[in-house]
Amino acid sequence: MTATTEAPATTAAGMPSAPAPAISLAGVTKTFQSGRESFTAVGGLDLDIQAGEFFSLLGPSGCGKTTTMRMIAGFEEPTTGVVRLDGTDVTDVAPNHRDVNMVFQSYALFPHLSVADNVAFGLKRKRVGKAETDRRVTEMLELVELGDQAKRKPSQLSGGQRQRVALARALVNQPRALLLDEPLAALDLKLRQAMQMELKRIQRDIGITFIYVTHDQGEALTMSDRIAVMNGGYVEQLGTPAEIYERPATRFVAEFIGTSNLLTGTAAATTSEGTDVRLDCGQHVRIAERLSEGTSVDITVRPEKIQLSTEPPDASMSRVRGTVTDTVYLGSSTHYTVLIGSDTATGTEIVVFQQNDRDLSAADAIAGRGSEVWLSWRPTHSYLLPS
Question: What is the purpose of this protein (predicted)?
Fold first, then answer.
């Protein structure tokens, strides 16, 4: 029988249609039942993840990110909704028949097998020929930079090296997507940061879809093409790292991603250049948006956007007066806490990150604890949180 190839799908206008997402969730929910009580871990999730994307599910413990990944892998069945891989409904397909592999926080390596045999384990179970197995194992070990460790046992490797073995074992099966559930959580900070860059390099080199679960915001910002920030079983915001950091969609995202100063107030007056906002602490700042007088306002300002000085800033800037209550020296930068307002009961604390690009003694003289200072930032950096 002669094999036939289907023509590519086309739109009504005769143009080729866009390829199906690598992974698609439509109306997916997951409810766990315990006696008479039920708990919704994931609620009404709609999500499309594109082929070759490094996609992160980010959020605090209990937000539903691991449950979402387990439904993609097939380890959990959705209560409602559909899971598709490359456009094919796999909602009821067993995990071992889905073309995805999963890497866990615990490496789950076989201690009695060598590195090479650990990587080859899945291929041998699939009865892949020896020559092909050896070729693919060698290729994967070179990819994760462990080519010279093939004969060692897992106990002879560092934590980072064992994580690379687990990654090679998952990738050697050539899955369409790789699911990674907090794989770096057990590593120390320096090694974790190094492995973040390695994971991104590997993903870029092989070009397959990575879905990464983490509660570490820095990890997600460093590696991801896009991030879904989850809270209470729902996605609060979906976007690129820059979009989520610079323009948080909700108060939760603003507080969870990085450090942010959240200021509340009321629109006092509008000009052609924006709105003057009277903060709850009594001082005034400017925002670029034009709002009706009396509108309640929630704004967020990132600490690195704020300048600290003893001299009054230009009147075109948002500016407030305050008192330095704390300083933390971190080498490349110093973090200041500044109280604006008359006292701690009615005032607001603002955190400022300043690069240490001047003489340390001069910086101490300008902004030591108890110093009266000005804080200023561009009105466009007062990001208005949606209602």
Answer: Part of the ABC transporter complex PotABCD involved in spermidine/putrescine import. Responsible for energy coupling to the transport system.
Q: What pLDDT is stored for residue 95 in this prediction?
A: 92
Q: Which residues pair with 241 in a beta bridge?
A: none
Percentage helix, strand, coil, to 5, in the chain? 30, 35, 40
State the pLDDT at residue 4: 37
| β-bridge pairing 209-214 and 177-181 | parallel
Its pTM stands at 0.85
pLDDT digits (tens, 9 = 90+) for 92-130: 999 989 989 888 777 788 999 999 999 999 888 888 899
Percent of the chain with pLDDT over 70: 92
Distance CA 179, CA 222 (A): 17
| Rounded CA separation 91/83 (Å) | 5
Among candidates 222, 375, 233, which has minimal Cα distance to 301?
Answer: 375
CB 237 within 8 A of CB 244: yes
Strands 333-340 and 348-355: antiparallel
Structure confidence at residue 81 as a pLDDT band (50, 70, 90): very high
Pairwise CA distance, residues 215 & 227, whole Å: 12
CB distance 213 to 55 below 8 Å: no
Residue 177 zone, left/alpha/beta (φ > 0; ψ -120 to 50; rest):
beta
Phi then psi dihedrals of residue 359, to 5 deg:
-60, 135
Report the alpha-carbon distance of residue 142 to residue 171 in Å, rounded. Answer: 12
